[in-house]
Amino acid sequence: MTSQEKVLARILFKKKIYENEGQAFEQLFTQIMNYAYPDFIQIKPQGRYGDRKNDGYIPSLGYYYQVYAPENPEATRTRNVAVAKARDDFKGLIDAWHHIHPIKGYRFVFNDKYKGSFPAIEEALAEIKTEYKLEVSEVFLAKHIEDVLFSLDADKILTLVGFIPDPAGISDVDYSLLSEVIEHIIKVSRPIDLISSLRVPDFDKKIQFNGLSHSVAAFLQSGSYQSGAIDEYFNKNSVFARQELRDALNQIYLASIEENYAEVSDDVSEGDLRFFHILNKITPSKSKSVQDAAFVLMAYYFESCDIFEDPS
User: Fold this and answer.
1) What is the pLDDT of residues 158-192, one digit of tens each?
2) CB atoms < 10 A from the CB of 197, how many?
3) Which run of H or of E encompasses 167?
4) Three-state secondary structure along 254-301?
5) Fewer CB within 10 A of the end CB, N or C, for the chain?
6) Whole-model pTM?
7) Residues 110 and 142 in one domain
């Protein structure tokens, strides 16, 4: 699959995550796990015995999965139910399954719809890990399932997400992740926090090395104060999304290098022209909120040297 096809596949997968609850979500999870782990065994309820707190397991690893897919993953009631379910289901799992295949790992599959986990769930699972001396006891979120999905061969991904339209017929498909993260930054924008600044000792050195003006440096510095918004996005999304976002920004930057700016203006440096080339590519909207969010994104990848050159 091409990078563009994978981005489209991700959009279709996220749609399934948002729409599927209860048994439908469990079935989606099971299909992905069956493809990823040939020895994964789905446990179906058996009359009055039920599934004995086991929605599926991998015998060779000793890892067991219990699925919870609520309608509203952010509700207070959801948090309380999830914590109780994580604890109670594990107790039932130990009683019914440990003598069959020893339990080495426990994953509580929670359809958070990319909203994240609750501290109380994390605490409960950590306590289970310590008490029962497990290799792992952790929450398994939508982002983790997405990463399993994109570890599969292309034909299996297509089977799971359905028909993918031709990327050539869709404009700006490469930038859909950019739009998604910019929208996230706008939603979670906070007052400037100097502590969370990305500013590092060689920030000014990199500015000078790339021929960027004081004005552009101010945009990047201001954006760096909101870097926590990017980290929050990555915490709720897959490794695949993080890599695709990085690649998209890097490709736009590399394309800017190919541009001939020598005769554009005597008053504006090539570095500044490249900066605004990237800004215009990732912000088709010229609204201030969108551009401010773009500065945050560019500052993050400027610091990581995915856009502009490292002077060292």
Assistant:
1) 999 987 766 555 555 555 788 889 989 988 876 65
2) 19
3) none
4) HHHHHCCCCCCCCCCCHHHHHHHHHHHHHCCCCCHHHHHHHHHHHHHH
5) C
6) 0.83
7) yes
